């Protein structure tokens, strides 16, 4: 079995017409931030594993080095994700070729691990999604997946129906996890939809005056369990975003910080310590650049963001639509976007920003085929 340590560029950036993986994304593969003991992501991983170890000693097996390049069967089909589901589009997912993708969730490993007859497991890894840009979104982030299987002897005599029994165990387990990480936080459950669970629910926690969604979960679709593990059982599954939890727990204001190699960031966290609070070590002024254009027919914001990230790398902080109008005569639509440049690590010069912005403008015309105004 291949691990995430040995990845060649030619395996990922291929000549396939469907290929949409950029160098910025390729550079992240194999970094495995979650395996660094003193990194905030590694600290959260350990804390979650420790919680499962305490509640079910020796039961949960942790997989943390599964190959992040998977088939569309693993990422979608085996999870019963419908053929027309948006997550399959190349606007949302990174395709290596027609049937290979960078996993967009750790659920991509559920079916294979069930076939290998693992009964209780956790999977942590980097996942990849094309998305818009802001302080909490980055095209690579980390998820932890959990699966637990139940036997008839577990629910029989409980006085509950089997689905109800499993769902109650799931809620109790995850509320316990939230308390283990955050102390006494307020939790609430909301209904959700995932093709691979039924019923599906989401856990939200109250933080900084806001309800924040921290994980999705549910009772595993019976077809997935029957077909891969064996009949007569029941299971739950959950998937949570590690950055999301770490930003809340450690007061980390910007998701790009997780990728920083700056000592002033890394030195603030220590294995086993959930109590550190991030102290910002520098503030550099942002620089705004606006760009207005008539959009092309197949223009999408994700494509725009991918282009900007490809040129500016991590000095882009935000891309936001600030104006939009349609010309009734020509039928053309104009968008004005504000690109905010700011480095986490240094002051940017006007010269540097102007040169990046010029490249962005050319790329908008050449790659996205929009008409600059
Ligand atoms: N894979 C889902 C996501 O990424 C989360 C999830 C996992 C939901 C397992 C239900 C069960 O959003």
Short description:
Helices cover 29% and strands 27% of the residues. It is α+β, with helices and mostly antiparallel strands and 373 residues long.
Overview of the structural elements:
The protein has a seven-stranded mixed beta sheet. A four-stranded antiparallel beta sheet has the order 12-13-11-14, covered by helices on one side. It has a three-stranded antiparallel beta sheet with strand order 2-4-3. Helix content is 29%, strand content 27%. The chain is of the alpha+beta class and 373 residues long. It is globular, with a radius of gyration of 22 Å. The mean pLDDT is 95. Strand 12 and strand 13 form a beta hairpin. Helix 3 packs across helix 9. It starts with 8 loop residues before the first helix and ends with a strand. It binds phenylalanine. Phenylalanine binds next to strand 9 and strand 10. The site of phenylalanine has 11 residues, from strand 9 and strand 10.
């Amino acid at each position: 079995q291949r691990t995430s340590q040995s990845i060649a560029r030619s395996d990922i950036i291929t000549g396939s017409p469907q290929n949409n993986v950029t160098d910025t994304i390729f550079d992240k593969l194999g970094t495995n931030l979650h395996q660094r003991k003193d990194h905030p992501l590694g600290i959260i991983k350990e804390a979650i594993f420790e919680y499962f170890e305490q509640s079910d000693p020796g039961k949960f097996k942790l997989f943390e080095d599964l190959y992040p390049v998977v088939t569309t069967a693993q990422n979608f089909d085996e999870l019963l994700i419908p053929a027309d589901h948006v997550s399959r589009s190349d606007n949302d997912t990174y395709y290596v070729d027609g049937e290979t993708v960078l996993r967009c969730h750790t659920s991509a490993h559920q079916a294979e691990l069930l076939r290998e007859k693992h009964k209780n497991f956790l999977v942590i890894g980097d996942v990849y999604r094309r998305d818009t840009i802001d302080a909490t979104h980055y095209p690579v982030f980390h998820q932890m997946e959990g699966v637990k299987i139940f036997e008839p002897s577990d629910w029989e005599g409980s006085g509950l129906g089997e689905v109800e029994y499993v769902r109650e165990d799931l809620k109790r387990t995850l509320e316990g996890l939230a308390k283990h990480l955050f102390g006494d936080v307020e939790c609430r459950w909301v209904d959700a939809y995932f093709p691979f669970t039924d019923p599906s629910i989401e856990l939200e926690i109250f933080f900084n005056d806001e309800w924040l969604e921290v994980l999705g979960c549910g009772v595993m679709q019976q077809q997935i369990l029957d077909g891969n593990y064996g009949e007569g059982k029941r299971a739950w599954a959950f998937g949570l975003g590690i950055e999301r939890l770490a930003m809340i727990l450690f007061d980390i204001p910007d998701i790009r910080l997780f990728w920083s190699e700056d000592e002033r960031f890394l030195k603030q966290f220590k294995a086993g310590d959930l109590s550190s609070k991030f102290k910002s070590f520098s503030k550099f002024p942002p620089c705004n650049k606006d760009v207005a254009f008539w959009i092309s027919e197949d223009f999408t914001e994700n494509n725009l963001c991918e282009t900007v990230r490809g040129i500016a790398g991590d000095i882009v902080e935000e891309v936001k639509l600030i104006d939009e109008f349609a010309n009734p005569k020509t039928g053309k639509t104009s968008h004005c976007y504000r690109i905010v440049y700011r480095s986490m690590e240094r002051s940017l010069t006007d010269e540097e920003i102007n040169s990046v912005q010029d490249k962005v403008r050319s790329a908008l015309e050449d790659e996205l085929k929009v008409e600059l105004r």
